[in-house]
Amino acid sequence: MVKKSTPAKSIPTPPEKPVGKISEAPKKEKAGSQFDLEIQKLDREIVRLISKRVDATAKHWMTLPVPHKAMFEGNPEDSLAALINESALDSAMTTTVRSVFREILSGARGLVKMKRVAYLGPAYSYTHLAAIEKFGTQVDLVPVSTIASVFEEVNRGSVDYGIVPVENSTDGRIVDTLDMFTRLPLKICAEVQLSINHNLLARCPRSEVVEIYSKPQALSQCRDWLSRNMPQARLIEVTSTSTAAQLARDKHGAAAVASRQAAVMYELQVLAEGIQDNKHNVTRFAVIGDEIGKPSERDKTAILLQIAHKPGALADALNIFKNNKINLTWIESFPLKGPEAGYLFFVDFEGHIAEPRPKKALSELEKTAVRLEVLGSYPRSEPVE
Questions:
Q1: Would you say the pTM of this structure is higher than 0.70?
Q2: Number of domains in the chain
Q3: Is the link from the previous residue into 122 a cis peptide, with omega within 30 of 0?
């Protein structure tokens, strides 16, 4: 019997690729290469322009009679902020661009003269963040432990400037700062208004927190949230939010009320964010030095005023501003120390002392004042995140 052979199965021939057709992978690779080239081109242009901008700014300042003073006159950050706002960028991009320009100005200032700036530390306290906002990172930022020490460092010439908190939109005046203005002959050269966002930071779960550390003002600004959400925790005052963050890092069961930057610096978890009771919480910081800048057309003037302790004396003093059509932006009373009865008043008003109306008002005020000192004329600022 003859066995029939089984025909072999044919192996299908794969279809030929159409000539000229490119597979998906090379397409992506080519597109990626195009993006890389475009980014490299942009990077080279950015580096060239930043270098050119820093160099031109530094050279401009160096041509002026007193370069180190010229670097801050007219508040160049404000004119840049106006330019950025005109560009109608979204909030994230606005923050990014502002940060870039801040470092450009900081780098140019470093070429003219490296600045030393004292601030209430440690690092990543809110005063430190305000110092970075004003001066950038290309300066020598010197942390000190008290507001009084900031004033003393500037007064003895160990640093060029200092930065201290003046008032908070929730808690009002900062007493230590106002007290030092009565003691030392320093001037307000500029201001920084910083939106303050408090956060609860710790290394342990929220349920294990038994102590919460922060400076008195920060605890006060979060008192309602803390009483509702952390009633079991004891509130403990320390000298700064950064000190609080250090304690939260080193002590189990401890938490801090501080900034997100402090959380990164001290390796803490954010247990709750934005815990301040006032969501529009702003602290105003004063840059202190020994000079008064030139008018910028958007200025404020701060004065220290003591008047006779008798009926109607304050009303008479305020009428001088009213009659000269000068708008007051801030007034705080401060009791005199010692046996003498009466008050010192800290007053801010719109305008520069070199302008006619403020000059006339101060001249009239001087005739009746027991004590009158101009603390500074400086550009007005807007709150920043």
A1: yes
A2: 4
A3: yes
